[in-house]
Amino acid sequence: MTDHTRAWRMLHDLKERKRRRLDDEAAAARAALARADEALARSNRQVAASDEALHAHTQRIARAMANGQAIAADAYLADARYRDVLNERCTAAREDAERAREARDASQRTLDDTRAQLARTGAQADWYARREARERREAQAARDEADEEEAMEGVIDAARRRRAQAAIR
Prior knowledge:
The protein is mostly helical.
């Protein structure tokens, strides 16, 4: 094996190791993306539940007012406090959903970057493998040519010896 062939083999092996490492990173990024998707779905469900609770409460108060029921001052204050609590829950749920969306987007970018690195590394590893194969073929062709030349020299030397022996006789 020539030095060039060894160098291409070593470069190919290094890129293959990097490709395996990037495969592992891509698997971890896919798992992180799945977790981020689940967290985003949970957050969106929480937002929907909070909005629904606020809407249901508003509807109950509207029905009570439409029926002409009087609302006592303490009931009105309790309603205001409950509405504030529901609004805080809605706000917190929306903030959680936004953080989950940002985390999901970051996970997607990480996965995309890892896939791009993986594609580049794979292309480099393939190129190094082709270069190594070409170097091997060239080295083998050079050895074959040298063997053929040596064989021809042997045939020529044998023919000279026969002629020399024939001339001596």
